[in-house]
């Protein structure tokens, strides 16, 4: 069952205030958009006073300044392309947003984009390792979740780098790579889907996939 868009808009207004929602550049609902799962929200802000990422109930909110948003959009970073390609505009200029989406779908990724994805792949992997090391002292479920998220970002960046390295490939969402079996490390994505459906995420799961991905990264070649 799909989410009730009106209820989500009301929840955001209650949480952030009507003035905030109406005055910010755009608020986008994206991700699976199904009941029972986390509700992914991206907020592009004129004024950066929210934390970059925070969770309130089932609302998983990511906020970004308009300046950084434009920079990442030029790099075709999936952090911003995913919401544009798969999302629904909750607040903001719909005409501008549709034009942005249309322009994005016409773009052909360059070598600069591929190199950027490769660098981000390694950065997110190292972040996942560092975050997971904190689990030894803090033993927090939130730490496991963030380590797992960073690991998924690392594998996603590598997958986009490999896919876009093929000539004339256009910008696409992550789910399309998974559906068309162009994704790297499909075993991980199968497990991630189980976690999204409610399976418990355990320390040994994150360690297993992090260790296996570390070994796989050595053998991945993007020419």
Distance between the termini: 43 Å
Looking at how many chains there are and whether they match, the oligomeric state comes to: single chain
Q: How many E strands?
A: 5
Radius of gyration computed on alpha carbons: 18 Å
Largest sheet: 5 strands, mixed
As a percent range, the share of strand residues is 5-15%
Order of neighbouring strands in the sheet with most strands? 3-4-2-1-5
Which structural category fits the helices and strands?
A: alpha+beta
Helix content: 55-70%
- The total count of helices amounts to 11
Q: What is the N-to-C succession of helices and strands?
A: HHEEEEHHEHHHHHHH
Shape: globular
Estimate the mean pLDDT confidence. 88
User: What is the count of distinct domains?
Assistant: 2
Low-pLDDT sequence parts: none
Description:
With 223 residues, the chain is α+β, with helices and mostly antiparallel strands. The chain folds into 2 domains: 5-106, 2-Layer Sandwich (Beta Polymerase, domain 2); 111-219. It is 60% helix and 13% strand. The chain has helices at 5-16, 18-23, 66-74, 78-86, 94-106, 111-133, 135-138, 141-164, 174-179, 186-196, 203-219; strands at 26-30, 39-45, 53-56, 59-65, 88-92. A 5-stranded mixed beta sheet has the order 3-4-2-1-5. β1 (26-30) and β2 (39-45) form a beta hairpin. The longest helix has 24 residues, at 141-164. The chain starts with a helix and ends with a helix.
